[in-house]
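Worked example 3. Consider a protein that binds protoporphyrin IX containing FE.
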Amino acid sequence: MASKLITYAELKAHSTKESLYVLLHEKVYDVTKFIDEHPGGDEVILAEAGRDATEAFEDVGHSDEARALLKDMYIGDFEKTDELKTKGPSSSSSQSNAVNTAVEQGSNLMYFVPLAMLGAYFAWRYYSSGSI
Ligand code: HEM
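Given these inputs, the predicted complex is written out as structure tokens:
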């Protein structure tokens, strides 16, 4: 499919119910005809107009049927600009994974340090009482 590049200005120009583009996964969809049929209501989609709707869309956990609907509304790829950084497929989740690992490591250390000190204390008591 030869894809047109949609600029940020174009995306912003279509942010009303009369004409509405939605940006999902770096692709742009014309959802004007669909918004009245959206099971989640029109407000939620309108709230994402002119910005990257990927996160909102994925947070809801849309079904495969919902994703299949997108195919017919696809109008082009989004031209990435500094004005609007799109969220890549995995950037946000890999970031939170890194945070989770850091937190996990931190809490492991929180258990390990007092336990090691307790062990050292008993070892010290054992050895010092044995030597007297
Ligand atoms: C623009 C493309 C979109 C399409 C084609 C779409 C399609 C659908 C479909 C078919 C459903 C029914 C449940 C399902 O099959 O998953 C649904 C539900 C829902 N959608 Fe979307 N949606 C879109 C965008 C959005 C956006 C940007 C939001 C923002 C938060 C949103 C929020 C919701 C919510 C909250 C529901 C649940 C409604 C309920 O269960 O009462 N949708 N959508």
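Take a moment to read the result before moving on. The radius of gyration is 26 Å. The helical segments are 8-13, 42-46, 54-60, 64-73, 91-131.
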